[in-house]
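We close this part of the discussion by returning to an individual protein. The amino acid sequence and the backbone structure tokens for this protein are reproduced below:
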Amino acid sequence: GIAAVLCYLMFIGDFFLGIVQSPLLQLNLSRETLIVIISVLVVWPLSLPRDLSALRHVCVLSVLAICLTAVAVALKAPSYAQLGSQADPDAWQLVWWKSDPYAMLQSFSIALFSFAAHTNAVPVATSLKAADGASIWRVSLYSVCIEFVFYLLMGLAGYVSFRGFTEQDFILNYRNDDMMMFSVRCIYGIVVCLGAPINLSPAASSIQGLLGSRGDRRRHFMVVTSIIASCVAIALWCKQVADVIGLIGASFGSLIVLAWPAMIYRQALFDMHPKRMSQAIFYALSFGAALGVTSFLVQLGCGSR
């Protein structure tokens, strides 16, 4: 939850920078100023209440935002690709495979984060508390397949549009006077502003539980404020959102998506499936977790140089 809040704050700076600098507003505000203002006026106040049920409809909006972004990026790909064809030929070449181990491991980590930290993850997990194994399996499979289709569409169309000039947050590549992308930025701006409190709420409750003060309102205020202040400080210090997501995905994402499911599967479900199937699932999860740890170490080592 905290990692998602950090990334949302970084996206707030990127999205709202394009919004305020658009021809409709033409405001001269920096990314850092926007992160501080929106965090203080929107994210922090919405994160203080314990009951965030009023924000549950944001989950539907986040799905619509992904669909809209995928369609917009696909529709804009031909025009932006035509503009970019006049740029440096070396940077404009399509590279379908890159043998750089760092890039491959970072991409794997980003994929882990993108599937684990979706805005819908928290409410869906809560609603499945009393569900049986078959229902959880179907929901997990269908959701991952749907996300894969839209992420693949956005990834391919975005890369074809900008190729070697693609920013870590590719929304930054689009012109501020592009009204279709202006709409995408506005919708996603709402999603990340309201998604941050949704993801922060269970994290804050967990921290209070560890401190033995789950019902203490004052302690809740201090925990929420400390988390937001820390995330804002990191978001102001670092602009490279892909590097941050890569490290988070390789560490927390590997634990949540691969390592812990492997241990739970081994203890609870291993004997319920045919032997070959259970072994394949368990070893695939274990291998993925080991790959995530390797990715974290490689990215940490390269980043410290």
About this structure: The two ends are 29 Å apart (CA to CA).
